[in-house]
Amino acid sequence: MSDARLNPEAPPSPEHALVRRQDYRPPDWWVSDxxxxxxxxxAATRVRSVLKVERNGSHDRTIRLSGDxxxxxxxxxxxxxxxxxMEGGDLVVAVSGNTAEIATEVVIAPAxxxxxxxxxxxxxxxxxxCEAEGFRRITFHPDRPDVLSVYRVRMTADKVRYPVLLANGxxxxxxxxxxxxxxxxxxxxxxxxxxxFAMVAGDLExxxxxxxxxxGREVELGIWVRAKDLPKTHHAMASLKQAMAWDEQVYGRxxxxxxxxxxxxxxxxxxxxENKGLNIFNSRYVLADTETxxxxxxxxxxxxxxxxxFHNWSGNRVTCxxxxxxxxxxxxxxxxxxxxxxxIGSEAVKxxxxxxxxxxxxxxxxxxxxxxxxxxxxxxxxxxxxxxxIYNKGAELIRMMRTMMGAEAFRRGTDLYFDRHDGEAxxxxxxxxxxxxxxxxxxxxxxxxxxxxxxxQVAARVEPEDGGVTLHLSQSVPPTPDQPVKQPMxxxxxxxxxxxxxxxxxxxxxxxxxxxxxxxxxxxxxxALLSINRGFSAPVALTVExxxxxxxxxxxxxxxxxxxxxxxxxxxxxxxVGGGAPDPLVEAIGATLRSNALDSAFKGxxxxxxxxxxxxxxxxRADPDAxxxxxxxxxxxxxxxxxxxxxxxxxxxxxxxDLSPQAKGVRRLRTIALSLxxxxxxxRGAALAKAxxxxxxxxxxxQGALAVLSMLDAPSREEAFADFYRRYREDxxxxxxxxxxxxxxxxxDALDMVEALRGHADxxxxxxxRLRALAGGLAANHWRFHSPDGRGYQMLADFVIxxxxxxxQVAARxxxxxGRWRRLEQGRSSLMKAELERIVAxxxxxxxxxxxxxxxxx
Length: 858
Ligand code: B3K
Ligand code: ZN
Known about the structure:
The chain is an alpha+beta fold. The strands form eight sheets. Strands 6-5-9-3-2-12-15-14 form an eight-stranded mixed β-sheet, with no helix packed on it. The chain has a five-stranded mixed β-sheet with strand order 17-18-19-21-20, with helices on one face. Strands 10-11-16-13 form a four-stranded antiparallel β-sheet, with no helix packed on it. The protein is globular and about 85 Å long. The chain binds (3S)-3,7-diaminoheptanoic acid and zinc ion. The site of (3S)-3,7-diaminoheptanoic acid has 12 residues, from strand 20 and helix 2.
């Protein structure tokens, strides 16, 4: 065979080559059809592939089939032995005609695949994960998202071990073979990129249901899990049906295949994957009952099930031309799932939660060494770009366009986008062009949001003038890596001037699109309150010059729930950052708690103080000990002053099986009240927490009580943790909570606990959920992670280095907390930097972790 190779001396492709957006070229070859014949076995799976290829244009270039860790056992072109060579992991084949059939054969070992990319084993199952570049670990293929093909897949496996064989599309034939093996063939009629390919084999049970589409087609739905988990699939199924109906009503999008299957697996690198017709999920986003899942878990399941389902249009029917366009599908789909969750729950609470997440994760990313635009310019490893910037800031961009053009024009725009690009691989520019055409808006300058990284800083000031006021606005976008100078952005600010009695002008949309801009508002009284960036209409950091008493009034009277929440947060920051007295905040929180007009869910949000990490973001160089002490003092002040109101809120209960937004709100407020009350009176708090724990008929109350106990030094804390472990030791998703709660507990012995848990029999680095529970819990424990002796940093770096040799994608995602080193006081700063240097110097480091750690040092 080696005689037939094109160029045996060809050098391997460079390990750490930067991929640039500017270098995009259309593919040299199309692949119209992929036929796979997969003989499954955990130790040795044989994959035979036949690709029908067609030259794209007139050129004489070879065809490059990407491969990662594959060895070609046979390569033919139109049935004849081929001329081929290996370049790095890729197979390069010479083809003389304009069309050809290229056949290859490889053997892979799913049981040894600890990266969980490509085909791997999880529990007794075999399953795949291909996005972004995992298909090349299964077979040779161009493996780029702009090459769309029709797939036919024949799966063969042992019938006892793998009675269920699933792939994309529809099953077309099946049969039994000698030796206890059987086979099934699947056909997916919709051309798709290789990253949407999926297969699952295993001993699975199914919850079945049906959905009748708006055009009367019946779709068979299945949620496939291990037998013991079947009772926990009903919420996911109900969420799926709700999502299918919602996408028809709100976007006019109908499901297209006759089947839609979801499979839950325990070992999964992230949340879930939208493979065409065969979504594969991390089991934590499928399985729930009220005994083992919190309300937040139930909500997350609905959100993720909807997100993956919505991808069928925003991602699958219209896919991405290249990975720089990732936000085309992810930003838009996050926006769609946020809107869905708002519609089935509380719009105000959902917005507050989404903004809290954006500020907690995306704003720090945007102000740190890993900052990148929503449409990045380059990467080493695309796996590192599944970020809050691509997902959550990307969703904010879609939301801003909708705010500026209105709901109807936005819907015309999405219709145009889907119609125009159905079956294609599109770009972010294509999306914006459809929006411009549908609305008549010029979005030329708006597109800077895709290009420029960094969170715009906006300042606002009101100046009274005869018979009205003038609103002065200014903006600047801070420099970010590779982008020292920025242009002014388009910043849509929903604004209202509210008279003290609650009356006053209508809300208006002010679009700030210059560095400075002043807007005259007639008829506003000079004592009017400025309610601005209502609903968080633009993802900016806003500073408003406030008159004495203005925030206090907004905190109790703004008619926009988000703005009201925001005023309370600003009052908290005055104490936590500005060193102000707690009294105005305590009063406003008291008024909020006593209000009959506000529901419990909103009260819960209003009582949630900015986290220590978010407070730290407001300092150039933070001192975590001082932040922790100040925040604890504030919690004590609130708990002491409002003990009775908090006790009343904690005493209110709702039946665990009631999952209405109202019942969830009662439970949410209950634990937040318990937490504040315990800060004021730890003994009373411990007694109430233990009672809440013991009497709980649902995981929300029980986990909430345990989280409060985790902060206290009461004997009941250890009792409750031991009881929790005994009760749920067979349920790995609940044991993840047990690990995470201990790792993130703000107590002086937290690092000792993390060290002990690392040696616990139930700890394994091979399961991403378990690793994230412990290492992620440590990193989320702001005060202890930033222990001044650097022990927390050292422990996280140890986790990263060890995990990197098992699962680089998951290891790389643990690095960013260390990248905040520039924003900590000097002592900690150098300790953090030293740990990053240790990671970069680790022998055999993956390019995933190398990219994250080396950029974090730059
Ligand atoms: N598209 C997948 C994410 C894939 C991540 C690959 N590193 C899930 C989602 O966003 O819906
Ligand atoms: Zn997605």
